[in-house]
Amino acid sequence: MATAPQARRAGRPRSAVLGRTRITAAARRIIEARGYPALTMSALARSLGVSPSALYNHAASKQQLLQWIQEDVMAGVDSSGFGRLPLDDALRLWATSYRDVFARHATLVPVIAVLPVAGSPRTLRMYEDVAAGFLGAGWAEEDVAAAIVATESFIFGSALDATAPLDIFDAGEHAARFPAFSGAVARQRAAGAPSAESAFALGLEALIAGLMSRADGGAAAPSAPFGLPRREVPDDADRPYGGGERGAAELHENPQSRGLERGGAGAERGREIPPARELG
Length: 280
Hints:
Elements: H1 20-34, H2 41-48, H3 52-56, H4 62-74, H5 87-104, H6 109-112, H7 121-136, H8 141-161, H9 179-190, H10 195-215, H11 244-253, H12 261-268
Helix pairs in contact: 1-2, 1-4, 5-8, 5-10, 7-8, 8-10
């Protein structure tokens, strides 16, 4: 006698439904725990308890995973001040929120810092807000992108600095040979100022002051962005990756190899980035 098929049980499924939110969270956990090279589709599938084929039904490639991570992380960056506040105040709000987000997720800096933005509408929205803020403050259109990149480079470096060991500048037994630097570090500690916080505050104010002086006519209009001499550079010259589509494809395969120099220096010293120091 044939057994009648059992009806599907009503209610929630026994395991969490596989979707973009769950996949993105798992991918971030892998990168933050073991670094970008550990993120593979097979490793991600194992962490989710599914087969790689099931994962590919939702995420077409590792590149798409990175775009999802980019969208997820950039949601915490506040660019709402542009067009609402004076440019200097909008820059402070944006830069501080941006630094705080990546100080909490420092292992993502070498990935996000070099990831193309075409797959991240949220990141493009942020850049649109910032660019409109500069243009509204009277900046020349050809200088806006350079101003954004300069500020963003400082932000990423500051995010990494927030995770550095507290004794990173201790000269140890060599202190007597380098008295100026060692003395400056000692005086800062004696003043009770957290080094990462004071450095970020000082650097941000100096950067904003320089940008604002330029907007106020404090610098003559240069022949090249920010007064740098123009030079012709061949498409593929002196670059870790070539120009054009080939270079973009290589960058997608290994974005971390073009990580920031500050991060690279830490890797060469053989130290892992420790958990971020408490901010604020």
